[in-house]
Amino acid sequence: MSPEFFWCIIALFALAGLGAPIALAMIAASILYLLAKGQDPGLAAEQMIQGIYDGFLLLAIPLFIIAANVMNAGTISERLLHFCLALVGRFRGGLGHVNVVANMIFAGMSGSAVADAVGLGKIIIGMMTREGRYSPGYAAAITAAASTIGPIIPPSIPMVMYALVSDTSIGYLFLGGFVPGVMMGLALMVLNARQARRENVPLEVPVPRAELPRLTIRAFPALMMPVILLFGIYGGATTPTEAAAIAAFYALLVATFLYRAVSFPTLYTVFSESARATASVGLVIGASLIFNYIVAAENIPAAVSNLMQGLNVSPLAFLIGINILFLILGCLLDATTIILVIIPLFIPTCRALGIDLVHFGVTAVVNCMIGLITPPYGVLLFVINAITGIPLRTIIQAIWPYIGVLVAALLVMLLVPDTVLYLPKLFGYVPRS
To answer: pTM for this one?
Structure first.
């Protein structure tokens, strides 16, 4: 590692520690490196523009963001919750089960954990805490934990980012997320049932089974969105980017004309929020392109790969060790930074050790999503706090059992690769071994 790169890292952490946005900290540190190396600082802009211009896959990100925001602006969340209430609300801890199942369904529409938390969080937490049936900490914790499923069950914005840095098939990554997403949901439901019995949560008044057809019809257009999206990708009719465009257009049609829940002023708000979110993500992606250029110029990935091979580390030991590192980093960094800056350092090592990149990518994204609920930098904890007013301390005290079961599910994914690779192999994927 050169002295210039050392000072680049110091500048990065110093700026981030002072509160600068991570994207701006990376850009500033990268320009400092280029100046110290005597290179043209305009190279930073060139790397950003060229990387984004060549990244056709990146177009999927703003389109999925628009689809999620349109769904949140309509009455989709409410219709889904009533549908799920009819399905699983009659069991002990019913609203907790509704929370998890609704997030699993909504995951097939948004691709974003934050979108799921915002779209469903305020409504379901209000339902759970009404008349003191569930404690605020209980309701907030299970909502935050269930929101992590959003980017695991496809579509997934973090998986799009991972595909960008690893050159892995986004279609196989999406397929690889199905079983892990369901595993996470089942783990949360088992924990919810146990906690509901322990706290003697009252049973909900069951929705008559005769109401289920009507509620299904009300939710049917929303339920069809993931079907259309995934049929397009896996049926070979569309690329993931084209599927994202169809998803955004379908969401707009359903919310505006079928449900009549979105007006022109609301659409203006939706597009404005989508533009801001896209710009925020795009800035981090652009900054990561510059930083990754510097990391490649310093030959850091090859050095890490040689070090790991020199230590004679087995693939499983490497996977477990690197996931422990990601869990620690998730307490301090946001998921986007880990995926775009940290993960690329270890991809050459995965190739050298024969670790399948789809398996590695899905487990890494699951790990990053757990980081979204891990204090002190748990973004979803802050989101739930902002939309409900439940004190952050109360949420943090209640979140630990949910982190525990999600980490247990992650460990199963690491030890049993077929939990990730079974569906991709059914569609013709040949795992690397």
So the answer is: 0.86
